[in-house]
Amino acid sequence: MNSLFLKKTVETSDHPRSYYAASASWQTDYPQLEGELNVEVVIIGAGFSGVATAVELCEKGFKVALVEANRISWGASGRNGGQIIGGLGHNPQAFRRTIGNDGVKAIVQMGAECVGIVRERIEKYDIDCDLKWGYCEAALRPRHLQAYRRWAAEDEDIELLDKNQLKEYINSDIYLGGYVKHNWGHLHPLNLCIGEARVAENLGAKIFEQSPVSKITYGDNPAVHTEKGTIRADTVVVCGNAYLGKLIPYLDNRVLPSTSCIIATQPLNEQQLDQTLRRDVAVCDSRTALDYYRLSNDKRLLFGGLSNYTGLEPTNVLDIMRAKMANVFPSLKNVGIDYQWSGQMAISLRRIPQMGRLDGNVLYLSGYSGHGLAPTHIMGRVIAEAIAGNSERFDILSKITHYPWPGGKLLRRPAMAAGMMFYKMMDLL
Q: What integer pLDDT is reported at residue 411 of this predicted model?
């Protein structure tokens, strides 16, 4: 049995040694911010939220600057599983009393719209990011199958699969059945984010890397400040998510960074592919502490999971992840592992992305709870609409109250780690 000893992830200002970084189509080298600059909108953070917002605003004709502390897509956007999954939040109906029936319908529509934005942007700007369509969710318990039947009654794009039908996609004996959605899929997230940043740049955005923001000046003419420069703007948009640090205590208290880990095998041969993923789909199981996996463009299995709320990662990530992968696919027990990495997801207490106004014209996006690739794109569109004068959808999302995590800095992580253990035990039922 693999023991679980935890450590703090060692980070540098460059990308981690992931499969994504090794296979990136372009190495970014934007300048540091120096001196003073005046724009209409300055965006803090160049992950998916930031670059998606930048593209939307540039398409509308705004003068935009994008400031990143490290490299484009350095955080969760360049480290995640790469699944394109629709939906905006865990349960929009839970907010009916606050936003009304029309508000719930709007959120459901935004959740459906977000995947289309990703598709359209890739096609419109010819972004090379290994886009493939097909997503499976796999059941480990009878209650998962019951949930799938309820979802299929509401979503005509869900195709239910019994155990034998699922094996045509996933050759594993541990699942009871599942479903497939052909309009969800997967891609190379780092290449998408870098590609979108280049789109924004070509549309006129000024982009700065290696420029951590040290302070925000609020008021009628807000500004962001780095060690060597200042950008003044009509509007500031904050998109730091789990990597924002202590810059804005209000947001820091409302997200809990959660660690997830991924390994990438050596390229699989035809026999190994037949023994594992028979079709090139993204896969998640239905547990709270879930496994997720897919094939890269060069036929590596990217296998992720091991989520925890401690903000730390196991010292023996490789051993634990190999064991988890072998539980699903025993034939890969001894396969070569070429890459391993981890990243931080920003978990919101209410499991719905956070959007709002900090002060005056300082706006924010945050808290995607591990499901941000597609939702970031609709959030970027909504906030761009608001800046352009149409705040209808922004007003709906900003009405939702987002509470700080209980326990403060000292107790919130132990409390949530204990909570995660409870859900892991429930996953066994």
A: 57
Strand, coil or helix: what is 121?
Answer: helix
Nearest to 131 by CA among 109, 113, 148, 116: 116
**Residue 3: band (very low, low, confident or very high) from pLDDT cuts 50, 70, 90:** very low
What's the CATH number of domain 19-85+88-93+190-254+349-422, 2.30.22.10, 3.50.50.60, 3.30.70.790, 3.30.565.10? 3.50.50.60
Question: How far is the C-alpha of 233 from the C-alpha of 224, rounded, in Å?
Answer: 8
Q: Where are the alpha helices (DSSP H) in 23-141?
A: 48-59, 96-125
Alpha carbon 5 to its chain's center: 26
Whole-prediction pTM value?
0.93
Cβ contacts of 194 within 8 Å, gap of 6 or more: 24, 25, 26, 28, 72, 73
Give the other-Cβ count within 10 Å of 249's Cβ. Answer: 9
Structure tokens at 428: 């066994």
Could you tell me the residue ranges of all domains in the chain? 19-85+88-93+190-254+349-422, 132-186+257-347
Rounded mean pLDDT of 331-343?
96
The answer to whether 54 and 66 are in contact (CB under 8 A) is yes
pLDDT of residue 147: 96
- Give the end-to-end CA distance of the chain in Å, rounded to a whole number: 21
- pLDDT band for position 423 (50/70/90)? very low
Residue 204 Ramachandran class (φ > 0 left, ψ -120 to 50 alpha, else beta):
left
Looking at the DSSP bridge assignments, the partners of residue 136 are 180, 283
162 three-state secondary structure: strand
| pLDDT one-digit tens code per residue, 139-186 | 999 999 999 999 999 999 999 999 999 999 999 999 999 999 999 999
Average pLDDT over residues 230-235: 98
Question: Which CATH topology does 132-186+257-347 take?
Answer: D-Amino Acid Oxidase; Chain A, domain 2 (3.30.9)
Quote the percentage of the chain above a pLDDT of 90.
77
Handedness of CA 28, 29, 33, 37 (dihedral sign): negative
Give the distance, in angstroms, between the CA of residue 9 and the centroid of all CA atoms in the same chain. 19
Q: How far apart are CA 41 and CA 364, in angstroms?
A: 13
